[in-house]
């Protein structure tokens, strides 16, 4: 398995996604400027895939970094793959394009490479509709995500986005979307939490059968932002078996946690705002895990969600009541 930082996977619409992406979520108290610095460092080091989201509230800074690296001649726009996400308060068909255009405006870009429905649940555009507005609770809405999808298809036809996908969808929800009468574009990917404690084997094999790429988030055990993550959950990178395998390869536990996902044929996102760790994580391309170590890591699965988004648990489209 000769993966390099240049390796891309071909999506079902013919576009290509780099197999390693830089994550950019940080807790609200982290200065937004750190995202800008991190994206610049990552691009200089050869990352070509940046994962972002409107709700994270730092798309302006990510856009600055991307445009800066284009102006410096380090990359051309077409070299870079940026993923944005439609927040759940923008699911009404008449809001979808507005949501996308807001990201484009904030970032100073003409198009996004990939735009995802962030979760399958719709929320009313009140309270936490805006990243700067931390006013909770979330108020449930009942927009059918198939209607949202049709509006997203129109955005692709208008050239505002190259590829469309979903995030945090379960199998039943993917099936419903794929069986939607008149479906014009299939989702190219399903971005889900996926790591040694949540290997997503069943969802992955279903997605594979439909030519949908799985993109893994929280591969390193998540950001552990106390607003979203129960801090009593185990620290993934401290796992003794993971560390034992890492020592065997003379690699960090982060590199092994990432490599495990890559070798399963899943695209990896890893967030870091530390230049040293952004660099270290590229070490994922410098070694290969043996089949027996892949098997051991696979056996660590315990169906653990670091980010269960409990606030929407009563929503009829909450994805994690189903087995997968
Ligand atoms: N679609 C969704 O609903 C969804 C949900 C969650 C996340 N995501 C996306 O996926 C990305 C990644 O997931 P995540 O942010 O939950 O977390 P993650 O990538 O699993 O972990 C990030 C944490 O690991 C640390 N870290 C990074 N490299 C390290 C290394 N080599 N050694 C030790 N620690 C290291 C980071 O700290 P430093 O920054 O200090 O290095 C940060 O605290 C997000 O940023 C976001 O883009 C999407």
UniProtKB/TrEMBL annotation:
Binding site for substrate: 118
The keyword Acetylation is assigned to this record: yes
Keywords from the named record: Acetylation, Eye lens protein
Any one Gene Ontology molecular-function term assigned to this protein's record: structural constituent of eye lens
Domain named NADP-dependent oxidoreductase: residues: 20-301
InterPro entries tied to this protein: AKR, AKR1C, Aldo/ket_reductase_CS, NAD(P)_OxRdtase_dom_sf, NADP_OxRdtase_dom
Residues that span the membrane, as ranges: none
Residues carrying the site annotation Lowers pKa of active site Tyr: 85
Superkingdom, natural source: Eukaryota
Keyword rRNA processing: no
Membership in a protein family: Belongs to the aldo/keto reductase family.
Protein name as annotated: Rho crystallin
Upper taxonomic lineage: Eukaryota, Metazoa, Chordata, Craniata, Vertebrata
């Amino acid at each position: 398995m000769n993966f390099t930082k240049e390796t891309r996977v071909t999506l079902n619409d013919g576009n290509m996604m780099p197999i390693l992406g830089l994550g950019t979520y940080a807790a609200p108290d982290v200065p937004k400027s750190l995202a800008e610095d991190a994206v610049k460092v990552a691009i200089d080091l050869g990352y070509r895939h940046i994962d972002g989201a409107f709700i994270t509230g730092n798309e302006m800074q990510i856009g600055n970094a991307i445009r800066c690296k284009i102006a410096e001649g380090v990359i051309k726009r077409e070299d870079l793959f940026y993923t944005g996400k439609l927040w759940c308060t923008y699911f009404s068909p008449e809001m979808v394009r507005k949501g996308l255009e807001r990201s484009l405006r904030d970032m100073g870009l003409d198009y996004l490479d990939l735009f995802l429905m962030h979760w399958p649940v719709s929320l009313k555009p009140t309270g936490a509709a805006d990243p700067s507005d931390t006013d909770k609770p979330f108020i449930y809405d009942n927009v059918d995500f198939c209607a949202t999808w049709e509006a997203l298809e129109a955005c692709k036809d208008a050239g505002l986005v190259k590829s469309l996908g979903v995030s945090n969808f379960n199998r039943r929800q993917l099936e419903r979307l794929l069986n939607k009468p008149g479906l014009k574009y299939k989702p190219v990917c399903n971005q889900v939490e996926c790591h040694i404690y949540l290997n997503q084997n069943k969802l992955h094999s279903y997605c594979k059968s439909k030519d949908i790429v799985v993109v893994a988030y929280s591969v390193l055990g998540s950001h552990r932002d106390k607003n979203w993550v129960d801090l009593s959950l185990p620290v993934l990178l401290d796992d003794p078996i993971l560390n034992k395998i890492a020592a065997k390869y003379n690699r960090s536990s982060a590199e092994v946690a990432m490599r495990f996902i890559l070798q399963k044929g899943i695209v990896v996102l890893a967030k870091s705002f530390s230049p040293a760790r952004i660099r270290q994580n590229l070490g994922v391309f410098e070694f290969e895990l043996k089949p027996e170590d892949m098997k051991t890591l696979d056996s660590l699965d315990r169906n653990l969600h670091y980010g269960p988004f409990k606030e929407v648990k009563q929503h009829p489209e909450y994805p994690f009541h189903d087995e997968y």
